[in-house]
Write a structure and sequence with these properties.
Length: 454
């Protein structure tokens, strides 16, 4: 921890716990692919730790079984996190004759996570180029978005149905950057694949309750406008065309053709007439319309979407399969629920769950959504299915033009050999990519029949 980060940490901890506390870094809480970001787990010591937000949440988040990882922050899939230490316990001295070691003061101790992102655009060279500058500005804005979301909305999330780590401190500074302090989840489990069963159910239920909280069709809805007014996004997810390079979609048909050719000997679908014909079936026009449809500020099912709903952002209670807590709000913003659902399917759920996506994903989600909405607020199931297929076309466009266009059999094999909880399943599974292509085939069929209208 350098001096600048230590100073920011000291300010955040004093604001949260008072002046009579000490702290020490225990480990990185996440590897991050964003240069200029640091995510650290800190152990805070003091005679009487009195952060109300932390104390209120400590009973619900303190568990005794450490597992795979702690908080992860980067949407673009960071490296495998370090294994955590066990949090949320007073540390007992290992030597009875030395109870007052310098790094273990007397009193109580809690673990917290510090996340700081500098203003990266200030570090760019003048001649860095427009594309690099625009990309860096978006990354900076994603950090502001996360902080703004937590400032505006974290207190509006029902802790019993939409649990997240306690937000202890937030600060947006125009030159120093964004600083967050949150309760730690390092005793929780993270799963590279969310298995069908209680864990999938919990993940769908959390998402349904999150969407229901912000659904704009409910009476007196929570306003979504303050997020963009505070420097955040006016549209959620990092996939939408407004956040992508302008000409990226122009290569979609070519990218699909080339991918099918590279993998035709490794999965039967990609050697089929369906796969070979998909690039010529109006998929580019459908993708443009899908992105516009899903980003509409007047969409009848507009809500807040998480925007990066993947395994790296899920923390499961080892002792309670029905409990999951979620992090990472860098790409959160107004949108349509199906964008989070397709993201979840391609990135995190098991083959078994996706194989019958209506029975295992859409129907359970819709049931939880209906339970969470006030009486009289309807979200017809068939509309959810249609929106899911439209979101599949949108995700397919992003994946083909920005991720799988350079994928090879060898690179997929390396991902299988080095499983990372922050990396989507599609990176290591040709079966998952084929599943998405087939779902897009269904959507294009429905568009041709006039059944699916965008």
């Amino acid at each position: 921890m350098n001096d600048d980060v230590r100073s920011l940490a000291a300010l955040a901890i004093e604001s949260s716990f008072g002046p009579d506390v000490a702290f020490t870094p225990t480990r990185p809480a996440a590897d991050t692919a964003f240069s200029g970001s640091v995510v650290l787990e800190l152990r805070v010591f003091g005679p009487n730790l009195e952060s109300n937000e932390f104390n209120e949440s400590r009973e619900s988040i303190a568990h005794n079984e450490p597992n795979v990882s702690s908080e992860s922050s980067a949407h673009n899939e960071p490296n495998e996190p370090n294994k955590p230490t066990e949090p949320n316990k007073p540390t007992e001295p290992t030597e009875p004759t030395e109870p007052n070691k310098p790094n273990e003061p007397n009193g109580t101790a809690v673990n917290v996570v510090l996340k700081h992102s500098c203003v990266r655009v200030l570090e760019l060279e003048e001649d860095c180029g427009a594309e690099k500058r625009e990309k860096t500005e978006k990354t900076d804005k994603s950090s502001v978005n996360e902080c703004a979301f937590l400032q505006l909305y974290s207190s509006k999330l029902p802790p019993s149905t939409v649990p997240i780590p306690s937000t202890l401190y937030t600060k947006i500074h125009p030159t120093l950057g964004v600083t967050l302090l949150m309760s730690s989840h390092s005793s929780f489990q993270q799963l590279p694949v969310v298995p069908l069963g209680p864990r999938t159910t919990a993940t769908l239920k959390w998402l349904a309750n999150f969407h229901a909280t912000f659904l704009q069709s409910r009476p007196s809805p929570i306003s979504l406008k303050p997020l963009s007014e505070s420097g955040g996004w006016d549209s959620g997810t990092h996939l939408c065309l407004s956040k992508r390079p302008p000409k990226e979609i122009d290569t979609l048909a070519e990218d699909l053709t080339n991918f099918a050719e590279r993998f035709k000997d490794h999965h039967p679908y990609f050697n089929s007439p369906r796969a070979r014909s998909q690039p010529d079936r109006g998929v580019v026009a459908a993708a443009r319309k899908a992105s516009e449809y899903l980003s509409s500020p007047t969409h009848p099912h507009l809500t807040m979407v998480h925007g990066d709903y993947k395994s790296g952002n899920f923390f499961y209670d080892p002792s309670d399969p029905s409990y999951v807590s979620v992090i990472d709000w860098q790409w959160t913003g107004p949108g349509v629920p199906s964008t989070d659902l397709i993201y979840l399917c391609v990135m995190a759920l098991s083959d078994e769950a996706c194989g019958d996506y209506e029975s295992n994903v859409l129907r359970p989600y819709h049931g939880f959504l209906a339970e969470a909405l006030p009486s009289g607020v309807r979200y017809p199931y068939r509309e959810l299915v249609d929106e899911f297929k439209i979101a599949a076309v949108d995700f397919h466009r992003w994946l083909a033009t920005s991720r799988t266009r350079t994928m090879t059999v060898e690179s997929m094999g390396k991902s299988r050999d080095n499983v990372d909880v922050n990396h989507g399943i599609w990176r290591r599974s040709i079966e998952r990519i084929a599943w998405l292509w087939k779902l897009v085939d269904e959507a294009l069929d429905d568009i041709d029949k006039g059944v699916l209208k965008i």
